[in-house]
Amino acid sequence: MVIEDKLQELKEQINKIVPSGITISDVEFEGPELVIYTDDPKQFADQADLIKVLARDLRKRIVVRPNILEDPERAAQEIRTVVPENAGISDLFFDPETGEVLIEAEKPGVVIGKNGVTLREITKQIGWTPKVVRTPPIESSTVKQIRTFLRSVKDERKAFLRKIGHRIHRETTSKDQWLRVTTLGCCREVGRAAFLISTPESKVLVDCGEKPGNTANGTPYIYVPEIYPLDSLDAVVLTHAHLDHCALVPLLFKYGYEGPVYSTPPTRDLSAMLQLDYLDVVRKETDKIPYTSNEVKTYIKHSITLNYGSVTDIAPDIKLTFHNAGHILGSAIAHFHIGEGLYNIAFTGDFNYQKTRLFSPAVSSFPRLEALFMESTYGGSNDIQPQRRDAEERLYEAVSTTLKRGGKVIIPAFAVGRSQEVMLALEEGIRKKKIPPVKIYLDGMIREATAIHTTYPEYLNNDLRNQIFREGLNPFLADAFVQVDSPDLREQVISGEPCVIITTSGMLSGGPVMEYLKALGPDERNMLIFVGYQADGTLGRRIQKGWREIPLGWRETIVINLEIATTDGFSGHSDRKQLMNYVAHLQPRPEKIFTIHGDENKTIDLASSIYKRYRIETHSPMNLETYRMI
Amino acid sequence: MVIEDKLQELKEQINKIVPSGITISDVEFEGPELVIYTDDPKQFADQADLIKVLARDLRKRIVVRPNILEDPERAAQEIRTVVPENAGISDLFFDPETGEVLIEAEKPGVVIGKNGVTLREITKQIGWTPKVVRTPPIESSTVKQIRTFLRSVKDERKAFLRKIGHRIHRETTSKDQWLRVTTLGCCREVGRAAFLISTPESKVLVDCGEKPGNTANGTPYIYVPEIYPLDSLDAVVLTHAHLDHCALVPLLFKYGYEGPVYSTPPTRDLSAMLQLDYLDVVRKETDKIPYTSNEVKTYIKHSITLNYGSVTDIAPDIKLTFHNAGHILGSAIAHFHIGEGLYNIAFTGDFNYQKTRLFSPAVSSFPRLEALFMESTYGGSNDIQPQRRDAEERLYEAVSTTLKRGGKVIIPAFAVGRSQEVMLALEEGIRKKKIPPVKIYLDGMIREATAIHTTYPEYLNNDLRNQIFREGLNPFLADAFVQVDSPDLREQVISGEPCVIITTSGMLSGGPVMEYLKALGPDERNMLIFVGYQADGTLGRRIQKGWREIPLGWRETIVINLEIATTDGFSGHSDRKQLMNYVAHLQPRPEKIFTIHGDENKTIDLASSIYKRYRIETHSPMNLETYRMI
Ligand SMILES: [Zn+2]
Ligand SMILES: [Zn+2]
Ligand SMILES: [Zn+2]
Ligand SMILES: [Zn+2]
Ligand SMILES: [Zn+2]
């Protein structure tokens, strides 16, 4: 059926379902959603179940939008008039895409009013649907910039969503039935994740990352004919914001991609932040930068965010659902349902099957699952990591020892993930008196990354959310944490009292950590604590191996007299035991498992162990292969 | 290096090697060959080893061509003047591509003269290089037409060969190194053979066949992005002329392919003949014909023939060598050498590892071999065929029995392959008095196919060649054989004496065999002998199963009272034992074997048996997969 006929038919169906008195003026596909335009948004809002009924009956994601949206400025005035001043409204964000206004307030309860009276009053006054959230305790400039940017391109974006909506719901013609996955990177290696799913109708790219530390051969095989022209792709899907999964998404737009990039909202924001940082780093190393901040903007303009659990059409025959992966903020297992019950395939991305201070363990049950592409970073039979609790005890010990002897602790860490885990561990250490009260300085992008974490509390685990909202105890706001935001303050930290410094980069390949190492390296009272994996060829690995004099430029040398410690166990990845456990707990049991995102021997070891233990067909694919699923 | 510089450098190298006095006027890539143009073709011809030395030192296929070729008509006159009349020159074929004149004579010795004196005289008189062959005992109209056609397009063809020559020797840029094979058909099925070899530099398609008896889903997956656009292919390579391997080659030209099709010379001629016949058959069944005879001509115009054992550049990083496959006339195992010693991969096409009356067993040793794609038609563990000798004994018995009781024998057979084997068996049967002297009528394309066999005696095995040339006993010319070339004669055969009729089609899906069956079916003295596999759904299979009344159109019925016999063992394929034997004798032992061209259970059975017995990594691929070789 042609799209226009399809929409007409849907409109008729909707008219049969909604009570008379509610006028449906228009029905339109916008991105993956079916948008119902109405003159009577309030009546719609009154019937809480109506949208659910429509979604179920039409098997579509439904959005209801008032036909005419009031001018945001006027609407803002009205909101501020209705809501009492002591609510502490900190921001109003009008999203023309959803017809919602996000009301950020220090006291959300006051905005909602007794039994929701204030909120209903707002709805009555303005066309916009109000949504109330607590003002993030730390403001993220990234989130603010992205929201502002998206508002500035709202017309373009509307046209884009309509185009995508029509494309998703296009007519299909093929009589063939098959499903293939082509490996474009990240097989028998860590880095440059990129997997192509294809059917006779559609093509979807899962991740598009870079290979860390490898500028020569760092891109996935995105130039092979399987994926060309790039605009033949229906969708790009991001599992999470780490650069080995998302760094080269902007490059796709440079090479002609014009479609959507699906991710969770935190992944979108963290990706943009890390991509811009990536450009800075690359710019320092070479003058061949792969793309500019313009392409990052283009990516954001084409991003479509989905929350965990929302089943979404992304192609005529493909539905995508994100599930918590427990790895970093917003990290997702991407589950694809192909055809009408034809096949189900999931990509774990990076995942952690252990509960951490920030996240719940990765989801292991799915409505259906035939094939799984599974990361194998710690897939080797000896890759057993210490328990998180033991790791923390060792960290406390190391910190205490250093402070006792009047030294300072340097903890190099990635901005996203491990930094926050270490922050929370140290905060609790101080609170529970396992380490002395001490200032913890955050230098580099860590603060901004933390801010993004506090913007999305729903992506943190229950315990942490309860601690923040019920107990009013936000550990990220603890007095101990001090942001280093000037060279002066950095000087003070260096020359000041014993303290802990968490700073980037995580593998000592540049960043403020170099300043600290230069200044604090010669003093043997200090300690450098590695909490993350140090890749071959990085300065971090060299220091671990015993390097004690590091040439810096052509005149300077860093002298390493400080103590070196390594505290395993803060990893965001499942270790070997957890990987095997994960397979044991998978619901349902898949027919095939592909082990990827690991060194060659680890992916092979894990694949053969899974086969031997569980008798599931396994493959440890190479890059550039194509596997038929059906 | 740019092509022009490369050619200039080659010219300088050549000038250093050839004796002074021989002028090299130009050097040019034409197709896979390096053509040296000279003003002194005679001096070149005098130095027999010079071309070999050049080929070895430059690692190229060398052709020497006189700068100016005499007008063919004048040259023809001169040849006829020099050669004595009793040589019986039957044809002169001037090939401007090679600068050769093919002299077909009944007595080649007379053309050559004592110690080659006449031949040297010819060389002296005309610029063309004379090549003498015996006049084929049966003239093939296909061969004649193809030669005439190629002569008529010689200018286009020269431009084409130059274009291809430049393309083969183009500069390469990729730093990547990989080799992949994508399965586009013929996996876990018989039919629609098509395999794509790709490297970062090049793409080659091996075979492009149809699926017999399956018009709905009969094409290989030539529309997937891996192979698009078709003109990005460097080459198409044909293993042999059966339709499940070559039927859709003309279609490639319709869809934009403009490159070369490599095959042996007999494969080119048989392919064209069978493609034209295929069009006739399809036209009778449906009005959706895939291509017309124009595209068959286009294919011929783009064909480049190679003899067994000739190592040929077909892409910047791929060398092709054909080896005897023992299956039908000109059938080849296609061996690809990738890069400079990087990898070697071969496709058996269909092959027979047993010596037959016509052909030597398939070649099993190669300079190098890492991966083999191997047919599995008889790959099931029960697919044991009788010895050829036993099969013939049974055939003799059946024929004798029938003749004795005054009946006629109908043997349905494919035009190419089995017909000739059965002809030779029956001829010997008569000669050695194992069956009574009897007329053997050939109806359908069998005669023309046989004519093509006699045009290429060098593609037959030694025994048969010796019998023909040394003993002067050409079995194909035996008096017993009578071509049925008119409806009148067919009527006479039907109403005449007891006899044997070999006729197409092989599975009773149309063709003259239907006439014979209609007329001879009701008489129980007659016999129908199947000598080949009858596919599911064909009339042949139905009769084997016991059908005794066959509706024909809406009024007629064929009544089957004649005796039905099946004589296995004339197959052109290796049976299970021979397949396993072949693997055992492979020199060198490959690292990987892929079993293809067989029913699902057979390819899987053979793959697992090879692995168990020989511990070679095996795969039974599905269509639409891509395997990384390196
Ligand atoms: Zn990650
Ligand atoms: Zn990763
Ligand atoms: Zn064949
Ligand atoms: Zn075949
Ligand atoms: Zn496999």
UniProtKB/TrEMBL annotation, chains A, B:
SMART domains: Beta-Casp (SM01027), KH (SM00322), Lactamase_B (SM00849). GO terms for biological process: DNA-templated transcription termination. Terminates transcription on the whole genome. Termination is linked to FttA-mediated RNA cleavage and does not require NTP hydrolysis. Cleaves endonucleolytically at the RNA exit channel of RNA polymerase (RNAP); the 5'-3' exonuclease activity of this protein degrades the nascent RNA released from RNAP. Residues 419-543 form the Beta-Casp domain. Zn(2+) 2 binds at D244, H245, D350, H597. Its cofactor is Zn(2+). The keyword Transcription applies. The gene is fttA. Residues 70-137 are annotated as: KHb. Residues 572-630 are annotated as: Metallo-beta-lactamase C-terminus. The keyword Hydrolase applies. It comes from the Archaea. SUPFAM superfamilies: Metallo-hydrolase/oxidoreductase (SSF56281), Prokaryotic type KH domain (KH-domain type II) (SSF54814). Residues 191-399 form the Metallo-beta-lactamase domain. This is Transcription termination factor FttA. Belongs to the metallo-beta-lactamase superfamily. RNA-metabolizing metallo-beta-lactamase-like family. FttA subfamily. It holds the Pfam family Beta-Casp.
